[in-house]
Amino acid sequence: MRARKGLTACVRGFAVSWLALVSITLSVLTIVSISLIPLGIGVFSTPPLIRAVRAHANRRRLLAAAWSDVRIQLPYRPLPADRRSGITGQVELCTLLLKDPATWRDLLWLQVDMTAGYTIALLAFALMPYGLEGFVLAAGVWRPIVDASGTYWYAFLPIDSLTTALLAVPVGVGFIALGSVLSPVLLRGHFLLARSFLDPTPHMALEQRVRQLTETRHDAVDTSAAELRRIERDLHDGAQARLVAMGMSLGTVEALIEKDPAKARELLAAARTNSAEALTELRDLVRGIHPPVLAERGLGDAVRALALRMAVPVEVDVDLTGRPDEPVESAAYFAVSEVLTNAAKHAGASRMWLDVHHQDGMLRITVTDDGRGGAEITPEGGLSGVERRLGTFDGVLAVSSPAGGPTMVTMEIPCGLSAPNAAR
Amino acid sequence: MRVVVAEDLFLLRDGLVRMLEAYDFEVVAAVESGPELSKALAELEPEVAVVDVRLPPSFSDEGLQCALAARRARPGLPVLVLSQHVEQLYARELLADGSGGIGYLLKDRVFDADQFIDAVRRVAAGGTAMDPQVISQLLDRRAQDRPLARLTPRELEVMELMAEGRSNAAIASQLFVTERAVAKHTSNIFGKLGLPPSDDNNRRVLAVLAYLDRG
């Protein structure tokens, strides 16, 4: 087991050490390109090169996570979407990229990667093959070498005869054993070194956080303003108008009740219909603001009730030991509602599965359907609305929807749960 | 007939009491919170209770929980639950013990005094009164199921009314047909759905709901 891990690390070390070549090339090209900026050419060659450097760094981030479980975050500032085109745009892009401190840290990393990083990766690779060399020497290869150029040093062992050549075997075994223990550690060391340059600095992380909070706050304010506008409109055109109509009918009834009782009765019936319809509209409105079951029972039963109302059968599995905070609960409910409705409407699903559970301070919701797939997050689509809504709570949404289905939408919101019986 | 009324809004509680008394019910208690309701149900032994789902102090589904608890203590205690919104989820919970004497209606139904009082009487007698909205939600959802698709439009109408808890006579008057015609429709429905025929009003509803619930 350990030997196999060592061997894997050895092969990976070999692979990573070759990437140093890319680092050297990119480093030279980028530095040349940047120094050519005063001449003008650099303005055009630098952005693609910086992008290539980023891609190169991102490959290392992926390898670090996959091979040594070292997580390296992205430090890059987002580029504005509305850049100008043409030469001015190019200059703007180049300036933006060069102003990003992450670009310079990437360049610094390239230097480290082609020296220290390379050495460590090579060492992670070399230990085991070097051990093998001991066997090869002992097998007889030592003789022609010694004949040709005298004493041959294998590590600390001077080989000049059969005895010393045979001694190479235990030394080789030692190296292989050392490699099987040390190679994974060295490989991890390589990635940790990369992380110290590629991970955002606390300052950059803070900057990222501020940017994200500004964005989500903006979204939250927008969403709630739009909601209020919708509620105002619904009340104005719906219940309010019906109550006015009702008041008018009743006024007329008052005038007619003696003169024309039949007509009065007719108007009374109309008033009652109006009041019933006003109630129905108010009920729907309330459901859209804060669903009654959510208030009464919490998220679990609210999504169960929701599932029962769907036209497509939904299998619900809820595992919650308490209730999340009310705003989170409400956001989660509407997210589920939107995703289920979306799936039923667009995916042509015949069955859906809803899974809600809470683990390690994270509320996880998965909606799966057997529809035709191909769902994606478009800027104007329902899913991006859900994403923005969840973003306010640092929640995220991921969609996996290959053409032909099935579609799986996963949402995660960090939150705690209150004690089960402390429901308000 | 002895009634307990639980409703937290004064105007509505007052209106309910007036209406019930106008139809010769004896309102033995009109309470406004969950604990008071539990006490009244346990001590006054009413023949029927009219209960709002949402009650203080928690303003969650306290009324529903009190009613369910009281029915566990006294199986078959007739309870008519009123709410601003109806949920299949709650309807299932109320019907789950299968002992009848259950009503679940939107508060709007109080507008039609005759129908509402009829529902209270039906529940008190051990039958059921389900809000048409619950039934139509169920039917909408199951309409694509095969056995239901075999019902004629008329039979579907009869089944909806039947599921609300109406008697054959009531269905007949509502649809302007004879009682015998309704009886024929119901036996057709039972046949098509593979349910054993039964005269018992309440068991009919349970059978229908149980069937709709399946799958």
From TrEMBL, chain A:
Q: Which residues form the Putative sensor domain?
A: 13-198
The superkingdom listed in its UniProt entry is Bacteria
List keywords of the entry alphabetically: ATP-binding, Kinase, Membrane, Nucleotide-binding, Phosphoprotein, Transferase, Transmembrane, Transmembrane helix, Two-component regulatory system
Q: Which SUPFAM superfamilies match?
A: ATPase domain of HSP90 chaperone/DNA topoisomerase II/histidine kinase (SSF55874)
Enzyme class, one word? transferase
What's the EC number here? 2.7.13.3
Q: List the transmembrane segments.
A: 20-44, 120-142, 162-187
Q: Which GO terms describe its molecular function?
A: ATP binding; phosphorelay sensor kinase activity; protein dimerization activity
What range(s) does the Histidine kinase/HSP90-like ATPase domain occupy?
331-414
Q: Give the GO cellular component terms, alphabetically.
A: membrane
* Catalyzed reactions: ATP + protein L-histidine = ADP + protein N-phospho-L-histidine
rRNA processing in keyword set: no
InterPro entries according to UniProt = HATPase_C_sf, HATPase_dom, Put_sensor_dom, Sensor_HK_TwoCompSys, Sig_transdc_His_kin_sub3_dim/P
Signal transduction histidine kinase subgroup 3 dimerisation and phosphoacceptor domain residues are 227-294
Put simply, this protein is called: histidine kinase
Automatic annotation (TrEMBL), chain B:
Q: Which residues form the Response regulatory domain?
A: 2-122
4-aspartylphosphate PTM positions read 52
Concerning Gene3D superfamilies, the annotation shows: 3.40.50.2300
Residue ranges of coiled coil: none
UniProt entry tagged with the keyword Transcription regulation: yes
UniProt xrefs under SUPFAM superfamilies: C-terminal effector domain of the bipartite response regulators (SSF46894), CheY-like (SSF52172)
Q: Which GO terms describe its molecular function?
A: DNA binding
Give a GO biological-process term: phosphorelay signal transduction system
Note the PROSITE patterns from the entry.
HTH_LUXR_2, RESPONSE_REGULATORY
Which UniProt keywords are listed? DNA-binding, Phosphoprotein, Transcription, Transcription regulation
Where does the HTH luxR-type domain start and stop, copy by copy?
A: 144-214
Report what the protein is called: DNA-binding response regulator
